[in-house]
Amino acid sequence: MKTPLKSILLLLLFAFILQSCEDNDDAASPADTQVNSFIWKGLNQVYLWQADVPNLADTRFATENDLNNFLRGYSQPEDLFEDLLYKPVSKYPNDAIDRFSWIVDDYTVLEQELSGVTKNNGVDFRLSRVASGSNDVVGYVRYILPNSDASTKAIKRGDLFTSVNGVKLTVSNYQELLLNQDSYTLNLADFNENGYVLNGRSVALTKSVLEENPILINKVITSGSHKIGYLMYNGFYPGYDDKLNQAFGELKSQGVTDLVLDLRYNGGGAITSSIRLSSMITGQFDNQVFAKTQFNTKLMKDFTADDLEDLNYRFVNNIDGKVLNSLNLSTVYILTTESTASASELVINGLKPYINVVQIGETTTGKNVGSYTIYDSETLFTKKGINPNHKYAMQPLILKISNSAGFGDYTQGLQPTYQQTEYIDTFGVLGEASEPLLNLAISKITGSAAKRTLNSGPELPYLTDSKILNGLRHGMYFQTAPPVNGLK
């Protein structure tokens, strides 16, 4: 049986070659439209909502010259890309149908980001408005990356900051202050009856190229007769799948009876990694359907029943021949916040038809769609014959995903079984049994009463977080294209 990705890539290759023949476009695009032509033709072939965007219709332009004239109306490729996305409500991302496709002007950087490599000072933070409707912004530290600049400085989980280099953070300047500078100073603050007040402390930080190990914590907590595995996993980076399997091996060797999987700050990543993780949690469902995918109408219209079967993803029992350290659990406890997205949500939704998934925390992001890196090349989806004149690449949404029961409509997020909001004044220490989300999970496992948490801090409206600013984004994507005919 063909793998799902192999099946769709073969179809895309045929469709792209056919489109090129129909357009008599064997010659290169005019120099002034090369990037824009790549954007239009790529989205016309693979974009999930191609049929819903009038300017992407196959019949929109009578001739290649008409298309080129349209493309010349955009001096910035990014503007064309944004205008071709499916955003029928408004141009504001939070109101759009497509909130997650993006484009870059350097595919090398994109490839690094998708593997967890970013320019980073080691502070993982969330930014929020200080109140609903306010333009003032407060940041708070969620965790510190090991072996980073921040790990050597006096800054920790729960610290607040409201200014950078002495400049007050706002909705309009946070990107300039935090994203566009390699070095900056965070001015720390406290929260009291007067709001957020600078406390006189500051931390100077410098970014370097960091590769984040997504396995931040892996430990066993003994509570009565229960040996509870706790794994905090912060990104589905396929280069760490072997280490993830080793982490499960450590839990298995210690005879864990239960598992708390902490995905509260995990914005997603590779689909293959989410399937492997789900197979490590279980193990008793090898080769059964884990998830089903669908692509745009144009690509799906000629699919046979066998083709559709080929698009199913299944539980696995190995990683490149290495046996998985599966726990064979019938219940898993998963910690979430509104930063939990994409491949993380796929784990939750994919497991639900098979085992009891107890979700604790906050409602997730709501991303049930996946992407693939599209290059300006002979095939769109590999770098074979890539255009040497630019380094633009796209990460458009190309598929919708559902679980084996056919459920995939969770664009408003997956709601927790037990609600527990993170408050800035009761953050707690990650991995400690007293930390509020983990404590609630332990109470549900053991049947004991959860520790009462008195919250005096405000609930802060989410704005963004450091993963998104650093390019990791909320992702669910194919890892790499396997060798197929003509692409070796």
Q: Determine the CATH topology of the largest domain.
A: 2-enoyl-CoA Hydratase, Chain A, domain 1
CATH class of the largest domain: Alpha Beta
Distance between the terminal alpha carbons, to the nearest Å? 19 Å
Radius of gyration: 23 Å
Sequence stretches where pLDDT stays below 50 over 5 or more residues:
13-27, 480-488
Strand % is: 25-35%
How is the main sheet built? 7 strands, antiparallel
Report the mean per-residue pLDDT as an integer: 88
What structural class is derived from the secondary structure elements? Answer: alpha+beta
With helices defined by DSSP (H or I, 4 residues minimum), what is the helix count? 13
CATH architecture descriptor of the largest domain:
Alpha-Beta Complex
Using the alpha-carbon principal axes, give the shape: globular
Helicity range: 10-25%
So what's the oligomer here?
Answer: single chain
The tally of structural domains comes to: 3
Q: How many strand elements? A: 26
CATH superfamily of the largest domain: 2-enoyl-CoA Hydratase, Chain A, domain 1
